Amino acid sequence: MADIIQLLPDHVANQIAAGEVVQRPASVVKELLENAIDAGSNAIKLIIKDGGKALIQVVDNGSGMSATDARLSFERHATSKIKSAEDLFSLNTKGFRGEALASIAAIAHVELLTKTESDEIGVQLKIEGSKIIAQEVTVTPKGTSLCVKNLFFNIPARRNFLKSNQVEFRHITDEFHRVALAHPNIQFHFYNNGSELFHLPKSNYRQRIVNVFGNKTNEKLVPVEEETQVVKISGFISKPEFSKKSRGEQFFFVNDRFIKSPYLHHAVVSAFEGLIRSDNHPGYFLYLDVDPSSIDINIHPTKTEIKFDDEHTLYALLRSAIKHALGQFNVVPTIDFDQDQNLDTPYAYKGKQAELPKVVVDAGFNPFADELAKPGNRSYEKQSTKGWENLYVGLESKVGKESDFSSVSFESETITGSIFDSQRANLDHVATTFQLRRKYIVTTIKSGMIVIDQSRAHQRVLYENFLKNITIKEAVSQQLLFPLSLSFSKADVLIIKEIQDSLVTLGFAFDSLEDELVAISGVPLLVPESEVGMVLDQLISDYQLDVQGDSFSQSDIVSKTLCKTLAVKTGEQLDSDSQLALVNNLFACKEFKISPFNKPIYITITGDDIDKKFF
Ligand code: ADP
Ligand code: MG
Questions:
Q1: Per mean pLDDT, which range of 14-18, 201-205, 348-352 is the poorest?
Q2: Pocket test residue of 38, 59, 93, 111 for ligand 1, highest count of atoms within 8 A of CB
Q3: What separation in Å is there between the alpha carbon of 103 and the centre of ligand 2?
Q4: Spatial strand order in the sheet of 433-436
């Protein structure tokens, strides 16, 4: 047989390598920004068009390159940053693989302008698909400008795989945040589609964080400071009362490099234990300085994970530094740990007035009969919008459908069958319900009993209600007496703009959406005014997380978030009217078996099951 092995041509090898380095426009942004920093720049400009698909340009005032270096920089394994393997252990640059430019040039149209301090005149290079197609001398200031156009022009499969411009833009913003937060001593400009999004002057860490995430951030920050032989820890955590539903602002930097570390994250979270609700997330911006020889940053191709020699010590030091910071700033409320947890009010309800459900249920009221559902005949009053009444969502609306309900027919019912039968006009036909461990609603059915997860059931009810409101656009909005003014980061405001239409159909009314400020004049009936900020936070973070596209639409994401945030939770006590309303509403849903998050809502225990237990 003839020899069949051959070496891949360079441009093919480069394309393959590019797949590892460049997953999306944000990866290019990261590499270019890091190169600019490595070149010693103190002012960097980032320019983006169409989510980076059309253009990514980084202009710096760093060292620049000679004409020869400029050509060489696009070769694979061409780097000025390490000379031998040993250098890997004393790394103080971002890059070291010498792969980025070669990879980018293999899959895009690249234009480089660069000049060193000592050269009189600069050089301009044009490269397409790894080939240098033009080289000219040119007048240009000291530093480098790298322009990347038409990313993945020669790999259509990759290009098609990219998400919408907004989603790609969001990844870029995330990357920009990480770099900008790590280098407050560098001035950054960020232009998106021709308009300036960020102008970050040279400053300190605290000011940089505030410039990136908005003025409101300042009051939230508690400094963390700890110096030991192993590590120097500095930075900020956010006060426990500002912990968020969303994971949003959590940053670790090791030797000025953004990293992800579930292990260290755990150290931080554990220091906050008991101070924030378990489903809330603390914000943190933590900068660790360690001896470069004690870490290995080489284990991940895109370098956001690193390996520490002594993780356990780091964990302990970090945890204690944060506990110390929390204690010093007197942000720790006194908590009596001996107190029975179950007696404790959940944080969200602390300080709020306890409200009794002001709902009167008329026993003759039939939620399933159309004529009774007309406004005039409503037999209960809405008096406040908090909590309990959420359970009655949909009761006023039409529930006339003959859905397949055979599996759940209630015990008290005679031979007739469906719950929607006219026989079942009275609520008191429904067997009594009771609440188990403040978590389940138990009720009997003909064949035995069902145990309903109260939170999931309510999620389902709210979810279908919200989806319907969005589709038929008839949501009821409650006008706020005084418009709410909420601050967000610029990036968050952009996201709110994106989902604005869905929010409006749900009953939100926006007076203005500015730079970092959102003025709200109306909210959906079911959203308490005090929770609007929290709900929007959650929406932003869910929307960001959904970049993978699990949800089929924006309305789906929005409805999911709202139902998750507003549904009754485990641990909440429900009176019997509320329990009944919940059960009835659940079984009026299109899908009553599975929660919007694909979890079973109830289980059935038949008489036979029980009989067996008695054997
Ligand atoms: P690495 O950063 O891993 O060395 P790159 O492919 O990103 O590899 O860059 C190759 C080389 O090109 C760098 O080592 C550096 O010498 C040079 N270079 C890249 N970008 C710049 C820049 N903005 N300013 C000066 N030199 C640069
Ligand atoms: Mg590099």
A1: 348-352
A2: 38
A3: 11
A4: 433-436, 440-445, 448-453, 602-606
Alpha carbon 79 to its chain centroid, in Å, reads 36
Q: What is the mean pLDDT of the chain?
A: 81
The number of the ligand 1 atom at minimal distance from the alpha carbon of 104 is 6
Least confident of 10-19, 98-107, 557-566: 10-19
* Shortest-distance ligand to the CA of residue 18: 1
pLDDT at residue 29 in the model: 97
Tokens coding 155: 């790999």
Residues whose CB is less than 8 angstroms from the CB of residue 558 and which lie 6 or more positions away in sequence, other chains included: 466, 470, 499, 502, 503, 506, 539, 543
Q: CA 586, CA 119: separation in Å to the nearest integer?
A: 75
Q: Among 425, 430, 462, 455, which residue's Cα sits nearest to residue 443? A: 430
- Give the type of residue at 519: A
Closest ligand by atom to 74 CA: 1
CB 245 within 8 A of CB 211: no
Q: Give residues (CB < 6 A) around ligand 1.
A: 31, 35-36, 39, 60, 62-65, 73, 78-81, 95-102, 144
Tell me: the pLDDT tens digits for 331-362? 544 444 443 444 444 444 444 444 444 444 55
Q: What is the pLDDT of residue 305?
A: 77
